[in-house]
Write the structure tokens for this entry.
Amino acid sequence: MTAPTPPPAPGQLSNPDQLGIRGPIDASRVPRFAGWPTFARLPRRDEVDRCDIAVLGFPFDAGASYRPGARFGPAAIREGSRLLRPYHPGLAISPFATVQVADCGDVAANPFDIPEALAQMTEATTALVATGAIPVALGGDHTIALPMLRAVAGRHGPVALLHFDAHLDTWDTYFGAAHTHGTVFRRAAEEGLLDTSRLTHVGIRGPLYGPGDLATDEALGFLAITSMDLAETSAREIAARIATRIDDAPLYISVDIDVLDPAHAPGTGTPEAGGLTSRELLGILRGLAGCRIVGADVVEVSPAYDHAELTAIAAAHTAYELISLIAARRRIDKEKHR
């Protein structure tokens, strides 16, 4: 009689075809509330030989214009990710067994000097992208999207942008400051980081400063899909519309958690009524399977305003969705080259 195969050791996958890939700690061996507080209980970067998808924290919120606290977002999202499991039934993929995903820790940036902080974050992300890893950032306020875009555009050229948010984030300045969480995509456009024919906002809502805000945004090349638009059509139809606009261009996805209604994400700095449900957000993302994502972020989680980890858990699931989409595209590309 053949002896039964022992269960995998913590942090190891049992599939022999995936030799060399290290996944999350086995929850049947180590309780979910124990162990290193990495995203989804994944290995740290120093525990693996390579990294295909890099989870990276940006504990920075000096660009926030209203309620601060997103500097604690990366830690909260990691904590909210403890219940994530390795298999994604919606995409029929085990992302952590398909590619090597690792938690690369946090980037330390000057909290008192925004230009210096942006330079530090750009340098760290550029070095990571140079290794071939696709970065998925945990914010932090939305200012951190600029160094991320600088890094991925430096490797891939101007990128398509899919931006989930209640706000446009294409304003010019706040109190004379050019770099804030509300100006990030104006600066990215000015720096030539964006493919201006493939820019989309999803979830825009709430009052603006004036009609000129929309005119300026449109002049930059953005298509705005409001939260009310989503109320009149399905997430699947919205995703199909976005996918057609993006085509196969290199794509950066930026998710401000305030795209969700405060009922689903109270822990954020600038909440607006009338937002998406978490199901709608995940549904749109899932409809983008096959897109060529080269970088992504989930930002503006401010845990001091959260309740029962609602926002942190929503953000963790959003990051998991993004990682799964990247892994699914990697699988498609690999099969094409067989």
